[in-house]
Amino acid sequence: MALIDMHDMLQHAYRNGYAVGAFDVVSLEFLEAVIAAAEECRAPVILSVAESHFEYVDPQLLLPAVEAAARRTDVPVAIHLDHGASLESAIVGIRLGCNGVMVDASTESFPGNVGLTCEVADMAHGCGVAVEGELGYVAGVEGEDAERHSGELRYTSVEEARAYVERTGVDCLAVSVGTVHGRMRGKPKLDFQRLARINESAGVPLVIHGGTGLSDDQFRRLIGHGVAKINYYTALSDIAGSTICANAAGEATGYTDLLRGVRDAMAADIARCMRLWGSAGRAAEVCVQCRRWQEVEHVIVYNASLDQADTESMIERGRAVLATIPGVRQVLSGRAVREDSRYRYAWLVRFASRAVIDCYREHPVHRRFADALFRPAAADRLSIDFELAGPDEFTEPTTQRGIRGPASPRQRAAGAGPDQVLA
Fold first, then answer.
1. Domain extents for the chain?
2. Which pTM value belongs to this model?
């Protein structure tokens, strides 16, 4: 598994003066192109899925494929929800496998932006998930993605940047310094002096939205002033479109013929970006120095004192309500195959990370269900929290403590015992 904590990944880039590419994925061709380039360059990468694309991409289908690709490769990968519009969007993104979420409240007033971002940050950090906020507004100019970002460009306020980071606790900050969503018209003029002051004031990894159309020198200067994550989509969309058009102008007639060469053309541009932004060749050190992203399986086996009909009713209620808790990815229940099994029933609740163990146990939805329905009916029970991991997954990164402080005893244990969580 190559899923990596996104907070750690961006902190590594920020400390070491390079930027990780966040490439929006809208199809399997995009997904395969990003992974192929990352493997070729041995680069950490962020697979980004934008809520603004959900009108023609079903996230319930796309994100499982993104997660499967991330787990299959051996380069470090994070999965990010881009331009989430609400707290509910962030909760769903985490449920579908994102370990980084962006809340885009950039069109709100400063207090409104801070308020919504705080809500998302409190929830996401309780799940161990990194949060990106945006201050200022990156408008759209032209191209496929531009119409989703209407209005006038608004530069990030240097004076507000530090207050925003301190109040919200975001892990990284998207800033507006002259880039645009979509294609640039003419030569872009970026406010590097503003960016330098924001970097000094905010003290967190900075993010650039609208990476298409910038020169090599501009990218280098952005990274030199604290940019550790660069979003990149329009150029890839244009490459895919032009390749398909070229195929159509030839002898291609069927769908697969029209897509011939699309993946390789996009992968070549992604690899160029990775080399330019300095992430190429960093995979090994990121894997060693950053924490792996590991889900937790919460398992309960129990016997119920209720009759079968009431037991099934209790289980059905649990499946419905427990799945709504932030950080819960899946809730399964079952019954023993053998009649003589020591325990007759089981729950399997998948948590996004270790951090969810505590917030799940204390969540009011869980407490109401456990206290009113489950515990009275299941006095005879056993529970355990464990991580699904390969033989090398339990090796802690050498600089973990220097990134986010020492793990708590509960985090180190991720323990097993008869009285945890639902028990």
1. 6-289, 296-413
2. 0.87
Residues in the chain: 423
CA atoms of 400 and 63, how far apart (whole Å): 28
Cβ distance 351 to 360 under 8 Å? yes
Instruction: Please give the Cα distance from 366 to 163 (Å, whole number).
Output: 35
Supply the pLDDT for residue 389.
Answer: 65
The pLDDT of 332-356, averaged and rounded, is 95
Cα(290)–Cα(311) distance, rounded to whole angstroms?
A: 44
Contact (CB, 8 A) for 240 and 265: yes
Q: Nearest to residue 266, comparing CAs of 23, 22, 5, 20?
A: 23
DSSP SS3 for 38: helix
User: For all residues of the chain together, what is the average pLDDT?
Assistant: 88
Catalytic residues: 82
- The CATH class of the 296-413 domain is alpha beta
Decide the pairing of beta strands 45-50 and 20-24.
parallel
User: 6-289, what's its fold?
Assistant: TIM Barrel (3.20.20)
Of 14, 1, 18, give the one whose Cα is nearest residue 76.
1
| pLDDT tens per residue, range 344-355 | 999 999 999 999
